[in-house]
Amino acid sequence: QGVVLMDPSEDPDDVLRANRSREKTFVFDMVFDHTATQEEVYLSTTQSLIEGVISGYNATIFAYGPTGTGKTYTMLGTDSEPGIYIRALDDLFKGLGATAEDVDYTVSMSYLEIYNEVIRDLLNPSSGFLDLREDSRGSIQIAGITEVSTTNAQEVMQLLTKGNKQRTQEPTAANGASSRSHAVLQVTATQRSPGKGAGEEVRIGKLFMVDLAGSERAAQQTQNRGKRMKEGAHINRSLLALGNCINALSEKGGSRAQFVNFRDSKLTRLLKDSLGGNSRTVMIAHISPASSSFEESRMTLIYAHRAKNIKTQV
Q1: Is residue 239 a contact partner of residue 246, using CB atoms and an 8 Å limit?
Q2: Main site of residence (predicted)?
Q3: Residues of the chain with confidence (pLDDT) below 50
């Protein structure tokens, strides 16, 4: 369950720093090495959340990390090794199918990206930029997003693959197919069962699966200039807003009352309920084993470690 991070630039013969090692140890709920399969990652991170969605709780899964460390692979996967999206939906349909016979269920999903702080619908890219609105109950809605109702995971896979081709990807020096946007898959499972008397019981569970854009330093590694640099600034800005929310939430209940600023970015506003509210949240942090990305790995682990301290009351 531990990650040990060794500094590649450390000199064993340096007398002045003999007692000051930059070796860091982090402890997490679960750590995978390079041999882990997609299935192992899914079983130990996400599978337990699906029953919750069926019983009407919300759940959120984040893929976080520097550019080029495999976030999109974890979430979407390939045809032979499907990722978390498909496995989670498969289990969701199986679980809903196994509920009582008098229960009607519908599953609807929308897939969107947040690129340079504007929202685009990936299932219907021609609809242009969409707005976030708050409805009367205080939940955040996206005006004009396409919602697709499906009944099996195969249809979903086709939709996702189609949507992913619409995603903004640009080559950078660090990663040939770097995703330059945050992709959010939102699945809503609604169950209606005849209740006692005339009414009916409705249970709604939401599942958010978020493939974040790679955090990056505007340094030698990505060699970004011009437009790429501006994109990188927007990406880092929304990740910073997410980080600020995580910091404020993880210090809640501490000595000082923290204000959590969800309005700093479209991403945090959309995920407001899933970060602080009635939701079970998993963050999968990705790091690269290469020694050249030591700093990125260190920042990612610190970020993930903070996220671990958030306590939500479901």
Answers
A1: no
A2: cytoplasm
A3: 220
Residues in Cβ contact with 256 at an 8 Å cutoff, skipping those fewer than 6 apart: none
277 annotated ligand-binding residue: no
d(CA 247, CA 295): 20
Find out whether 72 is annotated in a ligand binding site. Answer: yes
Task: Tell me which fold the domain 2-171+179-308 belongs to.
Answer: Kinesin (3.40.850)
Q: How many of the other CB atoms lie within 10 Å of CB of 186? A: 21
Q: What is the pLDDT of residue 117?
A: 83
68 is in an annotated binding site: yes
| Tens-place pLDDT, residues 233-272 | 777 788 888 888 877 877 766 556 677 888 888 888 888 8
Is residue 182 within 8 Å of 238, Cβ to Cβ? yes
> What secondary structure letter does DSSP report for 164?
H
Closest C-alpha to 92, from 163, 18, 42? 42
Structure tokens at 287: 């790091």
* 82 in a labelled binding site: no
Residue 227 is classified by DSSP as H
What is the number of other CB atoms lying within 10 angstroms of the CB of residue 308?
14
106 known ligand binder? no
Report CA Rg, the chain: 21
67 appears as a binding residue in the annotation: yes
Q: Is the pTM of this model over 0.85?
A: no
CA dihedral 312, 236, 75, 67 (to 10 degrees): -140
**DSSP assigned state of 26:** E
Identity of residue 38: Q
Q: Helix 294-308 crosses helix 226-250 at what angle (to 10 degrees)?
A: 30
Quote the DSSP letter at residue 77.
Answer: B
Quote the longest CA-to-CA distance of the chain: 80
End-to-end CA distance of the chain: 25
Domain boundaries, the chain: 2-171+179-308
